[in-house]
């Protein structure tokens, strides 16, 4: 075994690693990928002499931003949950069983490239 291989863990005759670059790409998309725009209109009306409502002022405010923090947090939480389901399984390789949740987590993270087989 080469010296660089001594820090790798083998599981079922395969070697896996966490790809932090891909983790970052999945959890925090680039600003150019998502553009959000919030538009707010504030109108103030008062009763005029005839007893009708008349528009006194109107303020329009638009805010543009990159991405959607709520969506980014949901993706991060899903990836975190999938990783934790793998990391919290404390069984040895011989006693390890692939239940539905573990299989789903591993397959999803492999498909996204967050976990890669070396």
Protein architecture, described:
This protein is an alpha+beta fold and 118 residues long. 34% of the residues lie in helices and 31% in strands. It has three helices and five strands; from the N terminus they run E-E-H-E-E-H-H-E. The strands form two sheets. Strands 1-2-5 form a three-stranded antiparallel sheet. The radius of gyration is 26 Å and the shape is rod-shaped. It starts with 9 loop residues before the first strand and ends with a strand.
SS class: alpha+beta
Strand order of the largest sheet: 1-2-5
Portion in helices: 25-40%
Overall pLDDT score: 78
Q: What's the total helix number?
A: 3
Describe the secondary-structure layout.
Blueprint: E1 10-11, E2 14-18, H1 20-27, E3 35-47, E4 53-66, H2 69-87, H3 100-112, E5 115-117
Antiparallel strand pairs: 1-2, 2-5, 3-4
Keywords:
alpha+beta, rod-shaped, 118 residues, three-stranded antiparallel beta sheet
């Amino acid at each position: 075994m080469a010296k660089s291989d001594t820090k790798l863990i083998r599981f079922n005759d395969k070697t896996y690693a966490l790809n932090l670059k891909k983790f970052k790409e999945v959890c925090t998309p680039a600003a150019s990928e998502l553009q959000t725009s919030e538009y707010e209109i504030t109108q103030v009306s008062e009763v005029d002499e005839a007893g009708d409502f008349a528009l006194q002022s109107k303020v329009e405010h638009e805010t543009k931003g990159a991405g959607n923090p709520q969506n980014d947090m949901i993706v991060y939480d899903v990836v975190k949950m999938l990783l934790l389901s793998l990391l919290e399984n404390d069984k040895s390789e011989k006693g390890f069983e692939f239940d539905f949740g573990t299989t789903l987590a591993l397959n999803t993270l492999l498909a996204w490239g967050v976990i890669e087989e070396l």
